[in-house]
Design brief:
alpha+beta, Elongation Factor Tu (Ef-tu), domain 3, OB fold (Dihydrolipoamide Acetyltransferase, E2P), 3 domains, four-stranded antiparallel β-sheet, 13 strands
Length: 332
């Protein structure tokens, strides 16, 4: 009886061992099939960076963010000293006010009081001209008849009569100008000057706005390159900003795997210290081979020519950092 039990136990053990071997083999085959359907790549996280600089050249008044700060589009990062611009803007505002008065005066024409005064001046000038003309005529007659006046006195009377006549003509033209109002050309010239001053005001206001350095998009300040008191300018970067909106993993694939990839292919990105996968997709496949970069550590690829692949991800939790090593799994 004991012998039969031993035989049965041995048979069961053999059966179980066989079943375990079959299960292990099936597991290995499944793993091999899964590996054949998945391409695993190693790479590093990359992000877009923006170098920020002031548009104008002036001394930096203040900087409002530090390295590592998260900023949003439109946030003010720094300001320049704008005292000179503010003075020029106030000066232009005063010039605009004066030119607006000039344009309004030209459009409204001459006041009735000024026209009445011009008429009075014309009457006085004509009276003076008539009187001077009479004096000259009488002296001319005396000179011709009895030579009772000298030639010099006669010449003085003639000159005075001509001068008074010219004054009367000038007074007449002044009255006509007052009655007709400003010429259309003068009004257009004054309006053009006013428009130029307003454009100058807009330019100065724009420059004042540009004296504030604003974030063009959401991101993280990577570098702060200048400090308050430094001279800034278009060619002097102040900050380096890493954009949060677009991140990708730069990896490299060997030529034999290249036909298995295509743009838009689904992928998963894994990084150390973060549970779970970050969804992504293949967005760029280089069509030019290059030598394996130093960041690729696989011995098999170290001397091979490879192709760059970028896997773009949606990192809503802001987990990925520039240069972080990552593993990419692409379903084939």
């Amino acid at each position: 009886m004991d012998g039969r039990k031993k035989i049965i136990a041995v048979a069961l053990a053999v059966v179980l061992a066989g079943a375990a071997a079959l299960a292990y083999r099936a597991h290995e085959q499944a793993a091999e099939q899964a590996a054949a359907r998945t391409l695993t790549l190693s790479g590093n996280v990359d992000v877009r960076e923006v170098t920020l600089a002031f548009r104008e050249s002036d001394r930096i008044k203040e900087l409002l963010v530090e390295e590592g700060d998260t900023v949003h589009a439109g946030d003010v990062l720094g300001r320049l000293d704008t005292e000179e611009l503010a003075i020029n803007l106030r000066k232009t505002e005063a010039q605009i006010a004066g030119q607006e008065s000039t344009v309004e005066k030209l459009r409204n024409g001459t006041r009735s009081e000024e026209i009445a005064q011009a008429r009075q001046e014309l009457r006085a000038a004509r009276a003076a001209a008539e009187n001077a003309s009479g004096v000259y005529a009488r002296r001319q007659q005396v000179y011709d008849d009895v030579a009772g006046v000298s030639e010099q006195e006669l010449e003085n009377a003639r000159t005075d009569a001509e001068a008074k006549a010219a004054s009367a003509e000038a007074a007449r033209e002044k009255l006509a100008e007052a009655e007709n109002g400003a010429r259309a050309e003068d009004i257009r010239a004054a309006e053009s000057s006013l428009a130029a001053l307003k454009e100058e005001r807009a330019r100065l206001a724009y420059l004042l706005d540009q004296s504030e350095l604003k974030a063009p998009a959401d991101g993280v300040i990577r570098s702060r390159l200048l400090e308050p008191g430094d001279m800034a300018g278009p060619s002097a970067p102040v900050f380096k900003l890493s954009l949060l909106g677009k991140k990708w993993v730069r990896a490299y694939v060997k030529e034999t795997d290249l036909p298995r990839l295509y743009e838009g292919q689904a992928a998963e990105v894994h990084v150390d210290g973060h549970d779970g996968a970050i969804a992504g997709q293949v967005g760029y496949i280089s069509d030019t081979a290059e030598f394996t970069p130093k960041t690729v550590q696989t011995d098999e690829l170290r001397t091979a020519l490879v192709y760059e692949v970028r896997v773009y991800v949606d990192d809503d939790e802001n987990v990925l950092r520039l240069g972080m090593p990552a593993t990419v799994e692409i379903a084939l």
